[in-house]
Every structure is written in C-alpha cells, then in structure tokens.
Batch of 4 targets.
Target 1
Amino acid sequence: MIKGGVAILDFGSQYNQLIARRIREMGVYCELIPGNAPVSRILEMSPGAIILSGGPSSVYAEDSPQPDPAVLDLELPILGICYGMQLLALHGGGRVQGGFDREYGPARLFYPEASLLFDGIEDGLQAWMSHGDRVVQMPPGYSAAAHTDSLPIAAMADPVRLRFAVQFHPEVNHTVFGDRLLRNFVFSIGGLKPEWNMSTFRSRAIQHIRERLSHGGRVILGLSGGVDSSVVAALLHEAVPDRFTPIFVDNGLLRKGERESVEETFRDHFGMPLITIDGAEEFLGELAGVTDPEMKRKIIGRVFIELFEKAAGRIDGVTHLAQGTLYPDVIESISFKGPSATIKSHHNVGGLPERMNLELLEPLRELFKDEVRELGRELGLPEAMVSRHPFPGPGLAVRILGDVNREDLHILRQADRIYMDYLHESGIYDEIWQAFAVLLPVRTVGVMGDQRTYDRVIALRAVTSTDGMTADWYRMDLEHLAKISSRIVNRVKGVSRIVYDVSSKPPGTIEWE
C-alpha cells in the first residue's frame, strides 16, 4: 500500500471512480475505501485528507452506509460530496430532510462570502446536482458557503476544523469549475503536493517486486499482448530479468499479425525468454460446433488454463504468478456493496494461483487504465502497443456470431485489419475507446460485377468511453464509413455487405457476445 494522499470513502455513488481519477490527474495519490471501513483501515495509508463520496441512500435509511464515527474526529481536512455532505451534517448535529423533488441536472451556484473552497471560482457558474434529500440545518460551527436559486445550503464550511461539504458533484465535467474546487481542497486546504507520477510508481513497483522475490523463486506471466499484461511484462523484466518468464498462448483466435507483433516486441526487442504455445488446434477443436457465447468463453478459459499449466510445469523454481489486475477491478471487489455478481467466465480464473500453488503478484493493482498506458511509455513499450484498444480474452471467437471455424476467422481477420488500418491512416484511432469488426451469421444478396452473390455481413463497431463501464457509439463521418465499406467489400472475398452499430452501453454491451 502506498502511503499518503487522499482517502476517498466510497458510499456507492456512480461517480466515485471519477473522484479518484480527477485527484490522480492532479499528481496526488488516492484510494477508494469502503465508506463503512474502520478508522484503522483509513489510517493504514496515512492520508493527508479525506473525501466522503456521494451515494444513492438516504442518511436516515435503516440500511444506509455510515462511516466509523472515529473517522469524523480525525484532525484531517474532510470534504463531503452530496451524500457525504449529508453525513457530515447528520453526525455533526445538523439536520437532513427528505420529501423534496429530486434535483438532477445543472444549477447556478452563488457564494455569500469568500471561502477557501471556492477561491478563484466565479459567481453564477454551473454545478451538477443529483440529490433528493438536503441539509436544512447546519451543525454548530458551519456556515453556508454557497446556494442556488432553489437550494439555500448548496455548500457549507467549518474553516476552523477544515470541514467542507458540497451538495453537487465537482468530479463530473458538467460542474464547470469542479477541477478548481477539488484542487483548492487538495492543495490549498489539504496541503498535499503533486508527487504521484509513473516515474515514482515505476521505482516503487520495481522495489516491491524485488522484495517479494527476495528469497528466491521465479515469476511467470500469461502474456496476451494487451496493454495490461504487456506493461506487467516490461515491469517484471526490468525488476527481475533473470527470474521472469512470460508465456504467450496463441489460441488461434487472434487478430492478423498479433502473434508476430508480440514475439518481435518481447523476444526480439526486450530479449525476454518468451515461451510461445501454439494452441490453435486445441482451441478450435474444442470450439467446433459451439455457438453459445458463454460456452465459448468457458471452453476458451479451460483450454487456456490447461495449456498454461503444462507450459509452466516445464519451468523450474516457479513461485509466483503475475497478473494484470487494475484498480477498477480492486474497487469492484472491495466496494461496500460487494463485488459484481456478473463476471464474464473468461475473466473468472482467479483460482489459478491456488491451483498451481503459486503466490499472486499484481504490480498494477493501484493503477487506472490511463496510468497503465503512461507507465508503458515510461518503460519503453512501443506506442502502438500502449495505445491499442482493449481486446477480449476469448479473441475473435466472440466476434464471430455462431460456429467458430478457420474460414470465418480468415474472413474476419482480413476485414478487421482493413478497418484498423483505416482508423490509423485517417488519424481517428485514438479518438475511439474500442473499435472492431463482427462477422454475422447471415448471408445477403449482392452484385459483384455481372454476377449475383450471396455472401456474408460484417458489422463495424466503434465506441467512446473512459473506462468501458459505459460507452457511446462513435459518430463516425459518413465519408470514412463509405471508404471502409468499399475497401472491405472489394478486398475480402465472401463479404458483400457492411453495417455500422449505433448502440450505446447501456442498453447494449460493447462486444456483441
């Protein structure tokens, strides 16, 4: 655990990860901690300031999450956001009241007097509200720091005890001054310094890895070629180059040129002792005739573990298994609401270290995805690898709707490569969170030259997102779509029609299966 920074107590707001991301972007370390965690858990990280997050509950509800009262007695600056403001009011001797119309959306904020929290912020700017209950009586020592036309106490402050609270959400972009407000709290009020960056993290992570392996042993990693596992590989190679072996399982479901790219980067460029397992026959044999998406994932997960175990068994002295777990995965598992009940099967391989009797090593578990990319650049990974879009564990198997076979894989690989090449050539690849082609299990009538065709349909998908939890379809220029469609139909034998997916998440998912 990294010491210092900001402890963010999680009370269930949909925006909690945004709070953490905003503070990390300032160069200050922070952690999301369950809102009802004991004060001892918070003190483990020696925070310089505390934020109480928003949440969907009413503070008076029987099952509402409540902080350890000792947390509120700490001599540290505290900022309450939305539900967090109501908690400060309730536990400080004020009064919160329900029964009002829910206020959701923009509101203009006004300040009766100057305050540390709103220093440098103009009067009348837009804030984003999302609440039902509201503070109607402030605790002793507090004064109203802001109001709106409909909300008399939109913010409150006790500058003597360094307690501040806002009823709106400064972490969302709709609050136009939110970044300045959070900076005021973190730097001016909290006195923290911007000392969190990937250069310092790199040094700490390398030291931690060496300490974990100080008594000998060897670490292995299932390298996929994706951003997370690639960064873990580069980090381990720098930390313990003589005791690290990456294992790359080629499942026969990869994009065109994927295997060659991984081998060139890690074996040739970095000089790692990369082990490549050609498992195409095993995977495709097990997948033959299988059309159910969940069954595909389970088969791919099982065969991967079997081949990975077999390869690892040939390496002497293995004691640790590295994985590319990221901070959003950790947040989901420690939330006071409990972990998500819907985990895709191919991700559910958490039992692998126990099965192989290995210790788990997760060097990226404190990082968000954008920080992982930055660390990858710091470690010298190629930009094309660091900035690549997410790619699913089951590979192209979940982008072929229906039976997975070599002919369909060949068609999809060609179409997907044309699509990706065009996005790079046109300069729009980096505007998109994830883009890919899907081969549909239908045939449509077409005309090629003077002949009638009855060929396949390719669906193109492109979305924008910050973390993949929600996503919106990318508004691609029609001229781009026309060129991509023309190239695929003219160059890929067996495809006669292209469609573009305009579904957002929710209600759809990013992947089709």
Note: The chain has three domains: 6-189, 198-386, 405-500.
Target 2
Amino acid sequence: METSTLLERLNDAQRRAVSAAADQHLLVLAGAGSGKTRVLTHRMAWLCQQHHLSPYSLLAVTFTNKAAAEMRSRLGELLQMPVSGLWVGTFHGLAHRLLRLHWQEAGLPQNFQIIDSDDQLRLAKRIVKELGLDDKRWPPKQAVWFINARKEEGRRAAHLEAHGNPIEQGWIRIYLAYEAACQRGGQVDFAELLLRVVELLRDNDSLREHYQNRFSHLLVDEFQDSNELQYAWLRLLTGEHGTLFAVGDDDQSIYGWRGAKVANLLNFEQDLKGSEVIRLEQNYRSTALILKAANALISNNDNRLGKELWTAGEEGEPLTLYTAYDERDEARFVCQQVQNWVDNGGRRDEMAVLYRSNAQSRIFEEALISAVIPYRVYGGLRFFERAEIKDSLAYLRLLNNPHDDISFERAVNHPPRGIGVRTVEQIRLQAQQGQVSLWEATEQLLAAKTLKGRAASALAGFLTLMEQINTHCNGLDLGAQVEQVVEGSGLKIHFEKDRSDKGRARVENLQELVGAAGSFQGDAHAEMSPLDAFLAHAALEAGETQGGEWEDCLQLMTLHSAKGLEFPVVFMVGIEEGLFPHQRTLEEPKQLEEERRLCYVGITRARQQLYLCHAENRRLYGRELYPQPSRFLEELPAECLQELRPRLNVRRPVYRSAASNQAAAPTPRGRGQGVGKRVRHSKFGEGVVTDTEGQGDHARVQVNFATAGSKWLVLSYAKLEYL
C-alpha cells in the first residue's frame, strides 16, 4: 500500500501518531473503540515504507494470541507480504521463541516444555507433600501465587530473605524445591518464560546488544496491562538507541490484581526522555450518550492522564436503568429484552450479559434454560484445557522428554493399569532420595526388584508401552504421531467404553486433536521439531480459543472477560454496593479506582443499547442481602438515563451514596433513601428497611425484623435507630 493511502484512511490524531518522527518514543493514549490496532499496524507499515526499515527490524508485542493474529493479518495486508516469520506475537510467545533460539545460554535443555497453570498446581501439590508440609497451612494454590508473584517481580528464591519470619521461610522453601523440580524436568511455566528472557538479555552483553541492534523499533499494544517483568524486558530491548511505540489506555487498566502496573503507562514520559503523548479520543463504536456516561463516570478517578471520548455518530438512546425486586426478577427482565430483540429481527449473539462475579451466572442460566434461550458462558473450559486433551498431551510430552515428572504422573495410570497411589508414592520417594526424575526412579526400582507382583508388572508394562509408541511414531508426520498416541495409549478405547454423551464428546475431542495436529503449521523460524512446536502451541493457546464454533447464543461473561469485545446490546447486572464495586475494594482508593475502570470498560462495550440493572433484594453466596445501588450509578448524568420501571413521585436518579443514607427520611410513596438500611426498634429488635411511603408526619417504613417479621411503622412514632 502506498504511503499516501496509508494516511488517508486515518483521522487527524491517528495520522499524527502513525507519521511521528521515527526516532521518538511515543505513547498513544487510545480510548475505547478509537482504532488503536489500526494505528499500531499502520505505524509499522509507515516505518517500512517511509523510512525503508526492514519489517524484520520491528518487534510488536501484545497480550493475547487472538490480538497477535489480527495484528499479523492486518500487517500482511498493508505490506502485501507473508508475515509468518516476523517478530509479532504475545509476550509469552516471543519469549518462548527467543528461548528456543538460545536455550543453552538460558540454561535450559533443548527440548524444554511449557507447563500451564493446571500442571503448575499439580507440581506445587507434589512439592508441598514431598516437603512434609500441611497443605492446609501451606495451600498449593497460594504457593503458585507466591512463586508467580515473585517471578513477575524478577526475583528468584535465592534472592529472597525471610527476615526471621517462619511463614515467609516456608514459602521460600517451597519456591526453592519448585525451581529444582522444574530445572530437573526441563519445565518452564508462563512466568518463567518472561523471567528467563529478562535474565538472558540482562546477563549476556553480546546477546543483548545483538537484539538491541536488530530491533530498532519496539511496538507494544495494551501497554497499561504490562507488569514489572514485561516492562523490564521492553526496556532491555530498547536500550539507549531503540524507540518504543506504546499504545494503551489507563482508563482500561483492570488487571492490577494479577500484576499489571498502570504506573508503567503513567510514568512513560518520565522514564523515556523526549517522548510524546498523543490522545485518540474519537470513538467509532458507541453512541454519544453511552460515551457521555462513560466520560462522566471515569472523570471521578484521580490517577489518570485524562481524555474525553467523542463520536461523530448518532446521539442514540438513553441508557436504561432497571431496578429489579430481586435477582430472579433481574434475570426475567433480561430474558424478556433478549426475546424482544430477537422478535424484532436481531440475533442473540449480538447481546451480552456482563457481571462482576461468576457466581451471578447461575440465576441467569436457570432463567435462560426456562425461557428456552440458547446461551454461552464465555470463558468456559477451552479445548486445550479439557481433561482428555491434557491426557493425550501428557503422553506426547513424555515421549518428547521422559524426565517430565508432571506428564509422567498424569499418564502412568491413565487409563487405569493397576498402578496404585502407594506405588506412585514409592516412585516419588525414590526420585526424591536420588534427585532423579520419576522415569529414572521407576527404572531403578524395577532394576533393583524393589517392587513386587502386580505393581512391578504394571510399571514395566507402562515403560514398554511408551517405548513401543515411540518406535511406532518414528518417521511419522505430526498428525500420525498424535493418532498413534491416542490409539496406542489406550485413551480412545478407555473413553469409548463410556456410552454417555460426555464419553462420546471426549472421543470426538481426541479425534479433533488428531485433526488439529494434522493441519498444524508451526513457525518455520522457531527452529523446533513439529512436535515441539505443537506442544508449545497447545500450552500457549490454552485459554485463548474455544474448542468449536458457537451458534446464535446470548453471551454471558464477567466484566473482566469482556475487555476487547463489543456488542450492539449490553446488560450490566448486579450494579450494587458490595458487589460492584466489590466489597473488598471499598476501603482502598486504588482498588476502588480499578473497579470504576472496570465499570467504564463495561459501559464502552455497548454500541447501541446499554441496560443497567440492580436489585433491591439479592440472595448471593447463601445470604439474603438488601444492597444499596452502586455509587457508579450515582456518577452517571441523569440526562443519560431512563428508568424502565418508574416509581410514582420519585425524582431520578433514585440512588444515593451510602454516606447519605444515614437516618434519612423517605421520599413520597417511592423508594426511599433508607431502603436496605439496618435499623433497631425498642420492641421488635433489629431489622432491614424494605419499603417506604408517605411524607411528613404520615411517612412510614416497612421493616423486615429478624424475630418479629415484616412491620409497617410510622416514622414519627417508631423512633428507629439507624445502624
């Protein structure tokens, strides 16, 4: 594509970002729906065409495989060339590529394997048990969190000090044992991929200089989601002479709980001298009223660089506010609106229900099943995360690396072959004492004839089986290798015995795995065997793609899962204090600001219509709640809202902040400010205000008392004490 054509398709702000000086660091503050991917790919094409840079001198990085694939596709169209060998991918994917090229310098075996979060947890459980620790006091899940958090800070176990704290000492001990087990088995978790690359570049001057010279320009998408380790990698590659082109939005930073540092974006100008900030504020997604509401909400956050979204499109319909009686009424309302949309010619997959907590989905699923409305829970179990697929991959990984303890444990007695828990414990003990892999420990036990009878026979049969599969796989293409494993391991026969729908689905998934391997095309530049490349692909793709195409279904998902998506119609449900914003964030300003950013993300997913729902009564986590409407509703302009179920004599907005609800008198015949508040009566004890009506001397409230039940009380006589 010609240079002039490149710029013609952009608005003024996008054009400034794309055509900025080639030697200048640039932060593109890109609002929701402002065309950030277009800017990033056009910038790459501009550098190649206008400044005659080789596309191989650019490194572009993002966070999901889907986003990386879209980036490569768009870049290929702009440059009109194949892009398979370009350095465009996710942080983890590019880190993996570097480590495959420099496995020796990184201190890894050539056939190292990536382990996913499930395998990481299995290993942590084994470590805790081998160390003789109580898994209630030292939960393996918490151990995984501790290890990953330290790695994302760039710290090895050897770098940590307990300072006399026995709890910290215990976690460090687990971390040390975990590192040793991974090194012994040639295994690398996701956090390790990034840490190894940072250490590789930091500690190897010639290698670092080589890549700093090779990649003159680094471009990063979703910069606000980068963590400490990812930013350190970018800075190492940028060096003194490279340039960094970062695209991000501080108002959409919602992953602080998993290590993302919005400060990386906020401090960009300070860290990279001579840099410039360009704001993309024109939105191509939502109506003007939706954007007005989003702008008003996010303006309540203090720690932001600031921008104002606008659109040249239509004003659109006001946001619809629905006050449900309870969570079932909320779900019924959503079902009715979905049906109305379909009756008017719309599709169900054009609509999404967004909630703060996964626990909220159950009521909606029940209502949708009752209403015979097809739905999909977005972010459910993905293809490479399914048990039968992970079983097959365990055999493949074990063939590739017999010292992979995690895969050994998964495969050794699945399908069942008479190798019991006690036998596996003996193997673990032998491995621990000899500091060898489980495979080697098994060979030692069989050679010493320590194991007797059925256990010895079964273990010997397993080793022989693996050798036979390995022999049969010799010379086969990847698809045939996977088919040999699925058949030879006995997994297919095992699942075929289950005549239920679940069993048939598992067999179909195994067949799909064979097909996926047969059609797999790895990166020709990664210098890996096809099997190595496929196993890495399976680990890196887990959690990115669904295992099949979905029909016309309503989409259900958490607000976090919705980031990056858009729908003509969006329902945001459960917008209540304690639920959204979440209870644990209310006392911490930084966390509350992240909750507000999450609400902003939810609002800006909607293109045409946005429904905001909250309930007066909600049963959640086994408790009966009388929640206050969320403070986020109060922060939306009244002129942007319409109440679908209006109350008599109530002035909108009907919500008030929690602070204003202390001992406030009710409004006439409407939902008073005290609804949901706990009160105490001298005779009836403690209760919750459930309704109000009247005014002045005739004002009265309905209170649901714990012991006396529901009572209507005249306020001027009741002398209620608000708690």
Note: The chain has 28 helices and 22 strands.
Target 3
Amino acid sequence: MIVDGVLILDFGSQYTQLIARRIREQHVFCEIQPQTYSLAEIQEAKPRAIVMSGGPASVFAEGAPTIDPGILDLGVPVLGICYGMQLISHLLGGRVQRADEREYGPARLEVLKPEGLLHGFEVGTHVDVWMSHGDRVETLPPGFETIARTPNSPFAAVANLERNIFGVQFHPEVAHTPRGVEMLRAFLFEVAGCKPDWTPGSFIEQTVDAIRRQVGNRAAVCGLSGGVDSSVAAMLVSKAIGDRLTCIFVDNGLLRKHEAQSVVHTFRDHFGLKLIHVDAADEFLDALHGVTDPEEKRKIVGRVFIDVFQREAEKLDDVGYLVQGTLYPDVIESLSFKGPSAVIKSHHNVGGLPETLHLELVEPLRLLFKDEVREVGEAMGMPHDVLWRHPFPGPGLAVRCPGAVEREKLDILREAEAIFDEELRAADLYDKIWQAFCVILPVRTVGVMGDERTYDYVIAIRAVDSRDGMTADWSRIPHEVLARVSTRIINEVRGCNRVCYDISSKPPSTIEWE
C-alpha cells in the first residue's frame, strides 16, 4: 500500500530503479509498479505523487505501452521522464515524432521559468543534463508551457501548472545530471507536499507491527546464513515475535575460516536468538566428491541444503512461517512490465525451499534496497562487520575451488582468504572494496623453499570495485599490500607456493571464477 508515498510507473527504463533510489534517498517512500497498474489500483493506493519512467518504446509504435488517461485526471501531481513525458503529451493532445537529431549524452539545459520541479533555479541558469531519446515532443498539449529548453529540445522541460503535471525530456535521476536531485526534491516537496518520514526507525516500527499481525501466535523458522539480508531479516522477526523464531544455520563445510563460530557467537550468544547450528559438512562434501562442473556444484549445494533445512524444520512444533531475506530488486525483477510474456526473471526463494514445507512466507525486507537494509541493521545495533561484509556466494568456497572440491584444497583456501582479509583490514582497504577473495587453482607449480623443490597449488587473489556487482573493475591495491599478502600466503599456508592477482574486469569476466 503506497498511501502518501510516490508511485513509479515503469515503462521499461534501465533507470527505473535509480529513480526509486533517488526518491528513497530523500526519505520519501516509493514503490515501482508496471505501467499496467490500473486506475482502480492507483485510486486504492492513494499515492501523493506519480512518476512515469522512461522506456525504449515509441509512443506511436504499434503496441506501445500506455496508461489509462484517467490517471492524469486524478488530481495527483505527475512527473513524466523521457518516454513518460512523451506519453503524457501524446495522451493529452500534443504531438510526438521522431527527432531530426537523436540525443544521447550530455546537453545544456536553459531554465526559462523556475516553476514546479525547477523551483529554486534562477531564470537563465544553464544546467548540465543527460539525454537518451530518439523521439521528442513537437507540439505541446493544451495548457502546457515550456519551463526549460536545450538547443536540440525546445520542450526539454514542460508543465501544466494548473494540473501539477510535469514532463522532462532528460533524466534527472542519473549522476550525469548533477542538479537532478534538486529537481526531484522540488517535485516531491514543493509540488507534491511529500513528507521525509521514510526512515530506518519508522520502517522498523511499521515492519515489526506488520510481522506481529501476520504471524499471530504461531512460530517461524529462518535459514540464517550470516549474510546481510538473512541476518537483518532474522533480527526484525526476532524483535517482533521473540523466541517463537527459530534460526537454522546450516554449516556446509564450505564457509570461510572461523565463520561458523562467528555466526553462532553473534546471533545466539550476543543477540540471544534461538539458533540451531547444524554441522552438515560431511553430507555436503560427500555429495560434491569428484564433481567438477560449476553449475552441477551449485545444484548439489542447493539440493543438500534443502534436505538438511527441511529435516531440521520438521522437528519444530507449530511452525507456520518461513522468513526470507528477499530484497526489493528481487520483487521488481519478478514483475512483468510489458505483460505476462515478458517476465524478466522468476521470483527466487532463498535456497529454493520446497512447497512441501507448507509454510507461509515472511519477507520483512521486500521493500528495501541493499543500502537501506544496512541502514536498518545499523539502527538495530547490528555489528559493522556483519552489515558490511563482502558478498559471499551461496555455494560458498565450492565455486572458489575450480575442479574437484577436496578438503585439503578447502583448508588451503580458508587460510589464504583469512590472510588476504587481515591485510586488507590492516591497510584500511576492506570497506573500500566491493568484494575480495581467493581462488585455489586446479594446477600445481614448481617452487623453491629453502633449498628444497616444491610442487604446490597456486592461489589467485581477486578484488573488485563496484556499485552493485553488475559491472566491476579490478581494485588498484597498492603494490606493497599485494606484496605482503603474497609473502604471508606463501610463507604461512602449507600447500601453496605461488600467488597471482586477477586483473580482469566484469564484463568480460565475472567476479567469481565459477
């Protein structure tokens, strides 16, 4: 329910999530819905403002995505961005056509009238903006006027001030429009009268109440991995229902050094959660014996996890709910923005738990982005090391061990990663790097230690800088730090005599090796 928040109607723009992020950063709640969201649903949601995103389509193309024109008659402030602006113009009697010269990239916006989303700008101000369009508005609908222009877009920003409907041909949500956040703030606060009350504290209070109403007097179970999402979800549910939540931590033998002990200490001993620690290392490693295909490893780890988790969950009494750390990007990506045939990906349940558990889902984080999850965790007093730990793959060290997964190689890998972690923290680099880890290669090389010949494994170290993991570049770690890491691994880790640094970007490489 959006009540008093902002509704974003998505027309397939690559920037839609970014619009939501920018609005959330102003402590204003917003939700993304496909452009098929009906007039009746919007009336029930009672948004304080509507934002119509950009998109790759052309408004006059056959089958172009559209909306019920009645949405524009609700009296709710509307901001159309790129395609959203063109669609508003098209529906209200303006004319849209192919631009003589397409605009992709930077442009200079001239402010003509500091109204609406340009509130606070001075007339004649020139602002850098980011364009990405092949169509443009040629004739404005009745009641609209130009409030800003660029050399190639005479209607770069338009407004119907009486109806509080605005359109911009550029993208205010991207970093390449440096003053775009000011424009969004003006729309949110000056035009729509939104309140900046979407805070971690308010979210915790509302979510805890919602969990109590949903779960009632029943019990819940959570598959706790120690990662950010499952940890914050578990803490929220525990805050709501106390010891009626049981967390099951499955130790698969593929974790980092001392990780199992750390999870148990943090959540059972420190936070007092009811936690079952299942040591299933032998079960996982036996199932992985001799398997070298990366995808098969993932399937095996997932299947064994389900078996172990279900076995433990069935021992508990009166459990009616399963807690999952589903995030908002997962929810968004499971929606179809062009009809049921164009679902981007199916909604993925953590661990792929089977329906035979007959449990109703509790997803306390399903409205949050990753950075918001961390803010909520901080507000609940969770440790920095838990909230800001580097991403760790579900199959664990199995996919950092190309080739067959063997106990000896896992032990070597654990020791090497522990050293790499220690040195990054000592150099104050850990929190500045998106992800860092080691890989043990399925080859041996000749070395010399003392006066003896060795024939041991190679460790590759990997560190990348990224914002979201979708793209990444290798981290420029100072040579002296790399030297210390290499020296320590070779000197301290038996079975390894060579260290390499992976300097591949994503794309074309992936972050993990498997």
Note: Residues 130 and 171 are 6 Å apart (CA to CA).
Target 4
Amino acid sequence: MRFNITLLAILVVFSAKAQVSGGGFPPSFDPAYQALFSNQNTPIVSLASVDRVALMAEDAHSPLQTRFAAPVSADISMQNAGKWTTLPDGSKLWQCALRSPGGLGLTLLFDQFLLPDNVKFYAYAADHQRVLGCYTSESCLPSGKFLIGIVPGETVYMECVMPADVVGATLVHLYRADVAYDSHAMNGADFDFGGSSPCNVNVNCPTGNNWQAEKKGIARILMVFQGGEAWCSGTLIANTAGTFDPYLLTAQHCQLLLPNPEFDLWRFDFNYEAPGCTNPATEPAPKSVLGCTRISYRAETDFMLLKTNPIPVNYDVYFNGWDRDNTTTTLSPNTVMIHHPFGDIKKITVDTQSAIIHPNQLNWGSVYGISPTNTHWKTVPDIGIQQPGSSGSPLFDASKRIRGQLHGGSVSPSNPCIMTGVYYGRFNQSWDQAGTNSTNRLREWLDPAGTNVVTQNGYVRPLPVGFKVSGTVTTHWGIPMPNTTVRLTESSGTSVVVVTDTLGRFVFENVAGGGSYSVLPERDINDLNGITTLDMVLISKHILGIQSLNSPWKMIAADVNNSKSITTFDIVEARKVLLGIYPAIPATSSWRFLPAATVFSDPNNPFNGTPAPETITITNLQADYLQANFKGIKIADVNNSADPGQ
C-alpha cells in the first residue's frame, strides 16, 4: 500500500533561542554609558544576501523540502572587524554588527569561541527585543565551536566585554551565518515558540498529569546541516547498567533533512514547556546542551541513537525506560507521545485505542525511502496531533516504556486536527532484528553487560547534593592549559583529582557542604618546554641590572633552584637541563601555579615579605565556588615561549 505521508521533522529553524547563558544585557544598553556610545555607530559588516525567489523556486521542485534558511560564509573576528571602546572601569568592549540584506533572521556559527573568565558575550536584534547571552567561559565547548541564534531581522549586533588583560586570550571567529528567507512555508505557520497548531495539548495540561517524570527526558533538537537547520524531537533513554550516559533516541530520517549533518553543533533543549496548561505569553527558558555524536541508526525502523555532550548535573532530567518484547502484536490502549511540534513548547498526544503493527510498506518518497512491512506501529490519536518537528519523539505504552519513535503520519484532508494514521519505528525491531553490528542496532548500547532483559524501567538522575568547585588554569600570559591535574584536598587529607579540558577548565561536582578544602594544580612534565638560551640571556641581564624582568611572574620563573632569589646559580641549573645533564629541574616541578587573583606586595621582588599562597583555600563550603582560577609559571621560561599543551 502506498501512503501520502508527511515527515514530521522537516522544519528549518526560524527562531532558535536557547543556549546555556548567564542572562543580563550588553554594556551599550546601560543608561550610564549612553554618552559614551551616543555618537558612535557600531560598524556593520555586509554579508551576502540570499536569493529568496531562486531558493523558493528550487524548494518547489521537492514537495518535502521545507528549507527556511540558507548559509552564507563569513570571516569575522575581533582582529579584522568591529570596534573597540575602553569603558570607565578600564575594561574593553568589542562591538560588531552583521547584515544580510533582506534576511528574516540570522543564526551565528563559530569555529572558534574561546572566552576567558570574566568575559561576557552578547548577541541581539536591532530593536533590542531579543538579547541572547551573556555567554561566558562556562558556555564554551572543548571543540571551540559554538552557535548563537536565531536573531530576527536582517541585522544582528554582537558585543563582548572583557578585562583589558585578557584581550589577547579572547578568541572569537565567525565562519558562517544562516539566513532565514521564508517565514510562510508549511501553510503559514510560525516556528518554534507559539508556532504549533492549537490542536496540540501542552504537556502540563491534565492529560499530562501522569507523565511528569517522563517529560523530563524529552528534548527539542535543533539540527545544523551544511545547508541549513531543522527541528526534531527525541528522548534520553535508560540502559540496563543504570548509568547516566546521555544516550538520546530520535529518528534516523532527521539526519537526512538536509545534506551533511554537523552533529557537533546540534542543540538539545530540555524543560522547554509551559508552566501550566495554557500557552504562556512569554517564552520559557530551556536548559540546553550543545553537540553530540551519532552512535547507531537504521533506515528500516527509522531509529537513530545519539550521545549528547555532557548534561550539566543541575539539569533535572529523566532517562526513559523501554520494552523490547518481540511477541506483542498490539499495544494496550492509551499510548502516549511527548514532543515538540514545529519546535514549539512541549506537547502530549494520546491514542486511547490499541496500537497495531502496520502490515504494509510505507513509502516516504524522495531520499527517505520505503519502510518494510511490519516494522512500524500505527496509532490514530484521539487527543492532540503531530506536526513537523515531532519526528523522533517516543511512543510510550501504558506502562510508560518506549515502544518506538515517530517516523511520520497523515492528516485528514478535511480537518487538520484529525490524524488518519501515525507511524513509529518499532523499538524491538531496532534492538537487534536484522542488525549486523553495533552501528545499526541498540543492543550493545542499552544493555552493555549483555543481561538480555526484555524491559528496563526509567530512572531519574539525582540532583547534586553537594556543591560545585570549578575554575580555569591558564599560563600567566593568558593561554589555557589543557590536561593539567587539579587536586581538591579535604581538611582530613582525603583528596580527589580532575584534569582540565582543552579550554583549561576543571570542575569538581557534588563537593560536600560544610567542609574546608584546598585546591592546587599539579604539572611536572617536559621540563625542557620553553627553555632556550634566550632565557639564560634574559635572566643574566636581570641579575646584572641591565634589563629587569618585567613581571613578578617571570621573576618566579627565573628562580630555577627555588631559593626565593634570582642568582647565577639559577642560570647554571637551567643550562644543565637544556644540555641534558639534568633529566629534570631538581629543585621544583616544571610548572608552578599561583591563584589568578594573586597580588604581590612588592611586584619588583615577589620573594620579599610573605610568600604568595599557592593554593586556594575554601573554608566551610556553603555554595558553589566557581572562581578557583590559577595562573601557571613554567620554570626557567622567562619569555613565555612554553607550549601549555605539552
């Protein structure tokens, strides 16, 4: 049997507004600064416009094509565009605007987005009605990639405010902007917040009262492709080990909506829902995660398993359970789907009748292919509907376990609130049936120990009972130090260690409140790193009074023998390391660290008076401690040539 079926995920973004951020407003919005900015126009960089007529004509040749935005290339950085302003407190403000003439909105894509501590980045619309940010060092990804948007209108403004001493370490490069060119496809519907049909039912209406745990696993997925962006839905899914690995089940066809999915920029929005039954006047703020890896997928049952980047521990999420029973031919009445139609706030759909196995092929057309017989469940909902953007959302049975994920459905030609058939790839078929290896089935990922159980209940990830201690480790000249061990020691002597990521960040989770702790980075490898004959010359000039080392940090680096002074013996020790006579610096580790906030009582002689503490001490921890920041000193390197990655 051949069906006319609408794929429920083919929706390109017009208004994607979620990202982990700190809120607030850009400095230029502050009335106290109006005089400073009143006569200064932000420089606008002109981007290419998109040919709306040609794009829509191209789209018309493919009935399933619902592209809304086309990418244009860019090359924007703080070094080649925008303007700088010094604020009254001495901090620096970078401002830049981008314009694509005729664009209805812009999404910003960065291949470099590195913000040191105390840096804040904003993006906003020309009318100031939509402000995204502030983004901080906590927002950055180890990959350096980032996404902001969408900002409505043809022009988007960017502002970044930072302490003057980290200007060189603040690295931002925008390589692409996606330009929305058509807001009236899909029968004139809007997109994301408020854009779905009134036939839908909010998840916090009475219909959803018994699904308050399960809804916490559902995510709205913003998908980035080489040719644009699209929406789908999905769910976190439990495994038999009971761990919190962020596996997320969605639909295989979601990756086919446009060419070349860029999974490291896909965004997952949790908790995007109305607080009550009615649609809210203002948009709720989701909890977002950026980036994922594709784990496995199969076209026949239209499943795709992703693994998202780590989900912050303070996100209240749920891992939904599943049932892979292969003997059931019908599902008991009251199957449920929770989803994000058109990228809108979370909705719930119910079929009060029994779901059945669909005995026929399903022809989805174009690149989406044909689903074999008996690979899908069929439902006919009585409460709520599905729309583009719902694809990948789970089908729950009456026991609240996943039985499949949404592939697509058909609507009554006389009433858009009536679905004539909705089809879900069968979970039990995706588990192992005809799957040849772990890249096209679920078994290995969701049953890692091979228990062979048939059902798995869902479970909640507990919220942290302790506090977070976090910070960054950089060189004293401002470059992040990855792969540096950081030790947290409790007053009793018990300690734990973590390692910094590529941005030099570290975090200790669930640190017990009420305790007293010390934090200290440790790094003692590659003693030769950064040591050259030039360092010997510079240390000698300092000793002779010809040319003093220009910072207390460099003076500490020159104290190679750890004598709390700088003498010719330091040159001798450094030279022995350089010549290979010493395998390592004997008197100290190759790197030393001081708290980033260290203030030297005598900057011209850091050895004078009470030595600066090398640890950060936390007494009676009662809240998150998020500024445990350190600066590293490479011993014997006084010209800052050491590579912090070695």
Note: The chain has a mean pLDDT of 89.
